[in-house]
């Protein structure tokens, strides 16, 4: 009986051991192991974006190294040799990327994100008639995938034919950071659905059939995929990295650095790019105290970080699913016809891009005050003439058709509805409807001097206006115009000898302007005007020109709280 009881207990224990759930296996993780710094302390006015080149033996990136006073594009070998400067510009440079045959690079230039292509053999740079971010060459070495900065859609642009084609047609969402998948026939991108909601999408390029890869409530700066296209790295604004797999809804933890780095120092990574041939990544690295709540990239006033490479170590993930490259598709999206197939009367297709109104009107004004609103529209077809018009509004409203300046004196208090439009000379049109609330004029004598809640006051108010004699809105070679810069001191005490330095997004020899700009005395709440002569030279290029300013006061350097965008127009220029 005793032996039988012992046997039963032993069998019961065996059953419990067999049926009990096993200890849960460790969740899959990815580690950026053995990080090596290639270039220390690179700086940029916006961001630094390093990318492996197609041969995986070199890296291209934008930024400024020691001694650089302007943005450059550099090439550095993975082995760690001295970087080679490929291009330099007074304008900001972003998102450089090399073509598959490694004979060209494409990049965005200036605040308008003007796309440019550089031939690495001749060093010639060609400005394309499109504006976008994150450009990438397709495998035909002629077509560029990019995100349009005007409407937030993905586009393809063929360099030889200057044809442009939309991939996405979103009107309520923004599509950014497109990446060409390893099969060369599909694309993935980040879609900002609404405030705080982001989605990773994937689709074939030739037939838009969108597959949702992942959806999350956190902002993403960039993404990259593994050589197999099955795994994505997402970089976040706080310097952390996460990973997702195609068809999986679970994020994979990514650790930056090795075990030996588990100290009081935290390592950061932004703008990660996966090598097309190896288990290696390049990123903008930095480090800070582990308890710090701020990423170190912007603490010096400019985006600063080090070009870093690291090995990708997988734990709990099948490496074959990550590093095995898929077959490449031979897809051409702009087929080239043979010359003898072209009709004798062949003419290139003219594609009109409609203008877009980008300015926002004031919502309120006071009875008796003159209401001014400068309507600003963007037109990427530089030779189109824009005309502004009133569709609906109060009868005493005046709208200058060439400049877009709306002038109105409210007749009474209440709400007033406006509808304005802008058209180009080829039928493109955009409109804007808005309401303005007219408030009673305050009795300033009854306004209390003391307030329980103080509102911060901006030191200056400013306005900038472009005045040209023919009023066509363009700056042309030999044309003398003026920039009117109005400045008001909002502080009680007067300011004296306030110096103004203009920042103009052109090459130094394209525009001439006055450089001795000083407001001798700025009284409180009084507008002061400087008239700055400006003249276009023969080397002026066809492109938008952004004008900003820096104020030098006795309290330090301040940005001028206004900017202006004008358009350079030169029929003799080959760069559009």
List its salient traits.
Immunoglobulin-like, 576 residues, 2 helices, mainly beta, disordered N terminus, seven-stranded antiparallel sheet, globular, single chain, eight-stranded mixed sheet
Separate helix tally: 2
Separation of the first and last Cα atoms? 100 Å
Main β sheet profile: 8 strands, mixed
Average residue-wise pLDDT = 79
Q: What is the count of β-strands?
A: 42
Radius of gyration: 29 Å
**Class of secondary structure makeup:** mainly beta
Shape: globular
What percentage of the residues does DSSP assign to strands (E)? over 45%
What is the helix fraction of residues, given as a range?
Answer: under 10%
Regions with little confidence, pLDDT below 50 for 5+ residues: 1-24, 336-349, 445-456
Account of the protein in words:
Among the domains are: 26-83 and 221-327, no CATH class; 352-442, Immunoglobulins (Immunoglobulin-like), CATH 2.60.40; 457-576, Immunoglobulin-like (Sandwich). The strands form nine sheets. Strands 17-18-19-20-1-23-22-21 form an eight-stranded mixed β-sheet, with no helix packed on it. A seven-stranded antiparallel β-sheet has the order 6-7-8-9-10-11-12, with no helix packed on it. Strands 34, 36, 38, 40, 41 and 42 form a six-stranded mixed β-sheet that branches. 4% of the residues lie in helices and 48% in strands. It contains two helices and 42 strands. It is mainly β and 576 residues long. A hairpin with a 5-residue loop joins β29 (398-399) and β30. The radius of gyration is 29 Å and the shape is globular.
């Amino acid at each position: 009986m005793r032996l039988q009881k012992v046997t039963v207990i032993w069998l019961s224990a065996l059953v419990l051991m067999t049926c009990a759930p096993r200890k849960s296996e460790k969740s899959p993780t990815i580690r950026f192991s053995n990080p090596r710094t290639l270039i220390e302390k690179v700086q940029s006015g916006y961001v630094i974006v390093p990318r492996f080149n197609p041969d995986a033996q070199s890296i291209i990136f934008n930024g400024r190294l020691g001694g650089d006073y302007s943005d450059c594009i550099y090439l550095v070998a993975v082995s760690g040799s001295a970087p080679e400067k490929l291009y330099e510009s007074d304008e900001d440079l972003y998102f450089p990327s090399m073509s598959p045959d490694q004979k060209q690079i494409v990049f965005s230039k200036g605040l308008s994100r003007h796309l440019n292509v550089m031939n690495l053999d001749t060093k010639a740079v060609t400005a394309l008639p499109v504006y976008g971010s994150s450009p990438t060459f397709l495998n035909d070495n002629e077509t560029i995938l990019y995100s349009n900065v005007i409407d937030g859609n993905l586009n393809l642009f063929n360099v030889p034919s200057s044809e442009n084609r939309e991939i996405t047609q979103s009107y309520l969402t923004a599509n950014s950071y497109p990446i060409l998948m390893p099969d060369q026939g599909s694309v993935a991108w980040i879609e900002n659905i609404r405030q705080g909601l982001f989605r990773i999408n994937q689709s074939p390029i030739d037939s838009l059939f969108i597959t949702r890869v992942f959806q999350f409530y956190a902002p993403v700066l960039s993404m990259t995929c593994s050589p197999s296209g099955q795994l994505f790295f997402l970089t976040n604004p706080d310097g952390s990295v996460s990973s997702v797999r195609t068809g999986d809804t679970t994020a994979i933890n990514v650790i930056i650095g090795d075990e030996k780095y588990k100290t009081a120092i935290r390592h950061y990574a932004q703008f990660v790019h996966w090598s097309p041939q190896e288990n290696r990544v390049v990123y903008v690295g930095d480090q800070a105290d582990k308890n710090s709540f701020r990423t170190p990239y912007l603490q010096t006033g400019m985006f600063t970080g080090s070009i870093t490479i690291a090995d990708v170590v997988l734990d709990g993930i099948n490496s074959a699913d990550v590093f095995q490259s898929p077959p490449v598709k031979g897809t051409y999206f702009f087929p080239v016809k043979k010359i003898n197939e072209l009709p004798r009367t062949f003419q290139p297709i003219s594609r009109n891009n409609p203008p877009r109104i980008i300015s926002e009107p004031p919502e309120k004004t006071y009875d008796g005050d003159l209401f001014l609103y400068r309507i600003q529209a963007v037109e990427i077809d530089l030779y189109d003439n824009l005309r502004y018009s009133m569709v609906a509004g109060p009868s005493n409203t005046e709208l200058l058709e060439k400049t877009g300046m709306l002038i109105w004196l409210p007749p009474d208090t209440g709400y007033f509805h406006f509808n304005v439009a802008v058209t180009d000379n080829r039928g493109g049109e955009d409109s804007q409807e808005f309401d303005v609330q007219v408030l009673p004029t305050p009795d300033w004598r009854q306004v209390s001097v003391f307030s329980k809640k103080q509102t911060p006051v901006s030191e200056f108010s400013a306005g900038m206006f472009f005045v040209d004699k023919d009023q066509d809105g363009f700056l042309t070679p030999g044309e003398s115009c003026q920039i009117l810069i109005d400045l008001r001191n909002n502080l009680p005490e007067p300011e004296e000898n306030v110096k103004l330095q203009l920042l103009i997004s052109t090459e130094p020899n394209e525009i001439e302007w006055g450089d001795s700009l000083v407001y001798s005395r700025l009284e409180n709440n009084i507008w002061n005007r400087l008239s700055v002569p400006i003249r276009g030279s023969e080397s002026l290029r066809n492109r938008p020109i952004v004008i900003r300013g820096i104020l030098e006061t006795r309290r330090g350097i301040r940005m001028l709280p206004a900017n202006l965008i004008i358009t350079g127009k030169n029929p003799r220029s080959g760069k559009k």
